[in-house]
């Protein structure tokens, strides 16, 4: 069970990191929407 949690967390971190690498600024799109 713990191994399943570990693997899911690791894959989620990789997905989030790939998403963040696509940002053009130093902050996310939700923060940018508040400033605009």
Automatic annotation (TrEMBL):
Source organism, top-level taxon: Eukaryota
Protein name as annotated: Uncharacterized protein
